[in-house]
Batch of 3 targets.
Target 1
Amino acid sequence: MALLGQHFLHDPHYLEQILQSIPHAHFADAVQVVEIGVGLGDLTARLLSRLGPSKSLLAYEVDTRLAQRLRSALGDLSGRLELVVGDVMQCKGVKDREKKQIKGLALSQCAFLSPEPYFLVSNLPYYIATPILTKCLRDALCVGMVVMVQKEVALKFCATENHSDYGALSVLASSVCCERTLLFEVPPKPLTPQRCNPP
């Protein structure tokens, strides 16, 4: 089940911590919540149960086997899930109305994950985390994110100038984000299969 780099988070404690890290307003406001990599559906089910009754969850999953089992696993909640099966990095996006800039950084004219403002929540596969983060940071419609990544990626994302982890991802993130925070660490045990290096 980990052929595509998936490491499934199943521990209710850490899943709840992820949910608590999402700005509460996004469960009810007009911002689309997006998940990349539904995996076994543990986070997906919790997101759907927290979203307002009129809101849907837009989710991407590259593994067709996992996508097929997800709908039956979700039961009644599956009617509010818009599931896109395929490689998210091959997503062609949706044309934005105009090219926007934030602090002088030219952002993409194509929305990466959604044609409307969205908030990303994801346990990102380690091999593709940086490319996804980069595309989301350059997407003017991405209003924020709570993502679980390997610790090395998180440190680069949050690094400030003159820090040893400071690099290209740090520069991009600091030019776009008002706030970048390493929220908490997850040890290997709550993941299946366990990662060699904790995220």
Target 2
Amino acid sequence: MEFTKGHGTGNDFVILPDPDGALDLTPGLVAALCDRRRGIGADGVLRVVRAAKHPEGAALAGEAEWFMDYWNADGSLAEMCGNGARVFVRYLLDTGLAEPSDAALPVATRAGVVRARIEGADVAVEMRRPRLYDASTATLGGLTLAGTAVDVGNPHLVCPLPAGLDLPALDLGRAPEVDAAVFPAGVNVEFTAPGAPVAGADGHVLMRVYERGSAETLSCGTGACAVGAVALRDAGRDTGVVAVDVPGGRLTVTVTEDSCWLCGPAVLVATGQVTAKTLHP
């Protein structure tokens, strides 16, 4: 199989070109590709397939040519990935599968169609406006933290740390315990702390995340959108711009009246071939 490796603020992906949907992609193969010792290593797999050629994308083929078939590192499927969408668009443009233009480029996902634009060296994607819908908790060891449940096409729980708790010191070596009644399909859990003021932004937040199906990652795009929406709400705002610093860099979240833009770097770092039979699913 041909592959490309890319990342957005350290959130890394194996990209598999499969325009006609011919690849037999299985959970075991995905997990083997993402294995950081026996495979290529990644937080997830992005399969590049024409929407009309994928059963979950066919209904959206009239709106977007390409479907982002995203899989978590453990081989489970995910509805959406903000950094993945940005890297996906970078791949389409750099390989000539899509042409840059002044109009936003549509991409089909399991969460619907997102639109992307190039902003200098960065890629920005427009997604649904985050929906804050419930209060819940996450437990790490003996520490229980209050949080807000947020829908960004996939589920999130945003937990601001109380004063006195150090964000870098949190042990995210195991999954936080959450309420299965609130999150029956699992949830991405974001832990946040306030950052110093940033020019041009209405807020600044520091974030770490434990992603369902991938463990702790250096960045989570939809998680940054969820965090930005919660930060704006806590500041008494419905819209605005929030700088979100993740371990892998900085993302900029812009919440509007009806959508949310996620902007940051998207980089392709390698191309090559992998032999599926040598992997260890």
Target 3
Amino acid sequence: MWALQPLLRRKLQRRGREEAGYLQAIEERFGYYTQAPTDGGYVWVHAVSLGETRAAAVLLQALRAAQPGIRILLTHGTATGRAQGVSLLQEGDVQVWQPWDTPAAVQRFLTHFKPCVGIILETELWPNWVAECNKAHVPLVLVNARMSEKSMHQAQRLAWLSRPAYQGLSAVLAQTQADAERLQNLGAKVDAVLGNLKFDAKPDALQLAQALVWKEKFKRPVLLFTSSREGEEVMWLDTLQALKDAPLDHQDHIHAVHWLVVPRHPQRFDEVAALIAERGWKVSRRSQWTDGPNLDAQDDADAIWLGDSLGEMALYYGLSDAALLGGSFAPLGGQNLIEATACGCPVVMGPHTFNFAEAAQLAEEAGAALRVEDMAQAVTTALQMVRFGPDENAHVQACMVFSQAHRGAAQRTAQALLPYLTTN
């Protein structure tokens, strides 16, 4: 890890050309800070990326209610996570990059901020973090913890490195019983199974209200390809082209909806726009809308809407009548479908959901999500759902029931963390 530091700097410079946030405060990643050294007492919360930061939001709300006056040290690994995390800060809180996993960088981080506890969300575990926190007597707790079968086998192949890290955690609070069992196989001490924090995240009410206003102007239903990943957009566009080239009755079918795509990674917005244009479709970008999609884009059957903004997923789900789940059509493990269902947007998912296996299974059992074998079947199923499916409203209702049934993890997690919290 020490030898890789120059490569990390080069990677940050490359990423920074597409996302300027990666060029911000680079030295923090190596344990050098502009903030004055503190007298300690921080509750360190690590949320590596955007999804974890959204989960951190509901946890922090519950922690502040349970223990008023706590000061938060918030760390991230990605630019989108850090940008989202700014909204979670209160007076006295600090936000910096996560320390690179070398003993020296972690020691400087711990010495500078003197946290009383480290709370790590979901999966982000680094061996030197654990070792140095143990030396400094800083308890580390993995919360909202998940572990896929694939990740467990990868960790087992590096057991000499992973097992001491998992054994060194003070506690683990798992999402599901299956996650708990896999984490225990790696040596972790699992204290409880508390559910998924993301069920407690409430969609942005203003965005949902805006979506309803815009949707009144639409002449056709909207189908969303959410959190699309590299390679999947090609599958999707190939499927649309095949339907477009089909007999006239099928052409009418494909043109009977508006198509909206939101890539998972913002640095790919331009790439996806170019890919759509190369296939002969027109592109209408959210960044160019003023009061919703322009009228030409609404009337044009060959226009695809591109969601090229950050922090507006509730708006996109509110506009949509159903969503194809990105990451599930290539063997990438899927993306989180909880936010979609919380917005009342039914999900059509492919075969690869191992990163969110239980949430996907529960959503399917509840009728909030449908499972298909491939992209072609996903597009056809979604079209049938919004055009000819008498059960469309039933799927929407199932989404709301499913979301409501699984809330409460934030309060349970906050209560489990109380023994570790101190205030100055």
